[in-house]
What does this fold into?
Amino acid sequence: MSLRIRLVALFVLPTVLMLGVVPVASAAGAPDSLGLSATYDVSANLQWANHRLVVVSTATVTNTTASAVTALTFNLVPAKIGQIAMNGVTVNGSAAPASLDDMNVIVNLNSALAPNAAATVTIRYSGRLNSTNPNRKWLFAERHDIATAYRWIPWLSNRYAFKTPLFGDAFTTQVASRVDVSLTSDRAGMVYAAPGTRTSVNGNTQTFVAYNVRDWNFSASPDYQVGSETHAGVQFDYYTIELSQSLFAANAKKAFDKYVGFLGAFPYSRMFIAETSPGFAMESPQGFWIPDSYKPADVSFAVLHEVGHMWFYSSVGSNQAAEPFADEALVEYLTRTMAGFRGPRCATANLDGSVYSYTSDCYYDVIYIQGSNYLNSYRKNVGDTKFYAGLRAYYNQYKNGFGGTKQLLTALQAQSGVGGFHARFPSLFPIGQ
Ligand SMILES: [Zn+2]
It folds into this structure.
């Protein structure tokens, strides 16, 4: 997520509290399902006139852990902000008990799933698309003639709370090798911005397939204008109503070229950029959202930032809730190689906290600003050659998997020989490292 815009106002009160590292633990009864793998086959009805999304999602889950599993945790944002009605859960075709816990759906299996065994879990729900944006309701909304659906496919995860101190993405999901989605709308002429490839159009039904994605978010509008171009062998698709496609394109290509130079090849063959209703810029696998409320300078900054998330978050995943440094500090560093670095406005704080550790006043300043400055100082210390060799090694080791703050810093140290991380990351690096 790109947070630069609203934060200026928040710095009027430079609160400097840093509450310490809060462990992101599973609640009792909400198992950690991050270690399992799944593919997803999903159909949904986008009821434009009713502002509803009616979903039937089947996950084919394989137990890739060493232990038998008796329950599964799925992350589902509409469970928290979409006033959802559950329409039944089945496991291998038989009804299974399920419960909602914050933005988590916990499905109890009728019989334990042994290591290497597979089960099909079908979750049916309908949710209301919001018409207001506070409390991040814009993640699941229909506003300004644009529908947005974020983390709407129930996806294997750990148990996280939707609410963070104000900012921060608490979404942590494993890459699925394949996701099939069929979207049907009661509104003709719907245009969808989504990951992967559209495979068919049949009346008001469109089907899509995506490979190696850790989420499948979409926005939709009958008013979208679509512009496409190929840049350095990658297809860029722009979906806009009010915003400037040329502004999207100029910044996307600038960031793309810069980051490819730093990191090596772009992870995907395509990237979409979609205008959405007021909220924040938000990354997805293979593309991102830019809200129509952004002014041109904010659009430019956000596009530079979100393109960086295609490498880090999208390809190299991380525990966004527990380790925002690996996600946002790194992407903000990339962004500010073009947009410029700036000094912090909050007191110096540790960089190893979770999204729940920081105050709303200082989360952005510590993680994004102090975090990007930390990486920039480290780069100056070790030199560009070793620093970017470390970033490339980190990307190549963890693409389509999970990295993290410790893995990132360890990869940098392996190339540069320079550590000294204890001072700002004491929970990850014991004294002396
Ligand atoms: Zn971000």
In short: The pocket of zinc ion is lined by residues 1-2, 305, 309, 328, 331 (CB under 6 Å). Residues 14 and 42 are 45 Å apart (CA to CA). The radius of gyration is 21 Å.
